[in-house]
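Much of what follows relies on a compact textual record of a protein's fold. An example makes this concrete, so a full record is given next.
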Amino acid sequence: LGGAVHVVDLLIWLTGERPHRVHALGSGKGLRDSTYSADSSFGGDDFRIALLEFPSGMTAKVSANYACVLPHFHRIDVFGSLGTYIHVPVSSAVAKNKPLEGDWSSAFVFHSREATEPPVAVDLPYPATPKGTLIANFNEVLSGTAKLEISEQDSMDVLAVCLAIDDSVKSAGPKEIEYWQIPQRVGEPINARGLE
C-alpha cells in the first residue's frame, strides 16, 4: 500500500480497533500512462483504495494516490452523527488566490448539515511534529539504550492490514485480515495501545 501505511497506523491508533476485513482496488493507469513515468522504477499501483471493516461495525476508506497533482499530504476525514472532521490540503489563502507560503493545510469540524452554519476551524500546525521525530528513538533502540515507543505488535498489526490490502487487490475480492501475535518479552506489555 506504500505511503498509506501511515494512515492505516493512524486509523488503528485513533480508533483503538483493528479492522477484520478489507476490500481493495488498484490501478496503474496514472503515472505509467504519462510522460512523468518515463524514468520511474515504481512497480506498484499508482492509485489504490481500500474499504476496511471493523468488528464494531465501523468502516473506513484508505487510499494512496501517487499520480495525483498535490503536495504530499495525509488527508483525514472522520464522519459521524455528532459531527464531521475534515483535514484538507488547502488553505484559506487558496480561496483568496494568495501564495501559500508553506501553510497549505486546513482542518474543520462541522456540527450541522445546514449550509448556513459554518464549520469550526481547527487552528493547529501541520505537520504538528517533524517527519523524522521517531528516528532518534529508533537509533537509541538499535544501540540498546531505549525501548521502542511503538510496540512490535502495533507495527505488525499495521503490516497485516497492508498485506491484506495487497491480497485483496490481487484477488479482486474481500480478504479477512490475519494478525500475527508477537511473543511477549519479559516486563513489556503485548500491545502498547491496548488492542485485543
Remarks:
- The two ends are 24 Å apart (CA to CA).
- The longest helix spans residues 152-171.
- The longest strand covers residues 21-27.
- Residues 105 and 146 are 34 Å apart (CA to CA).
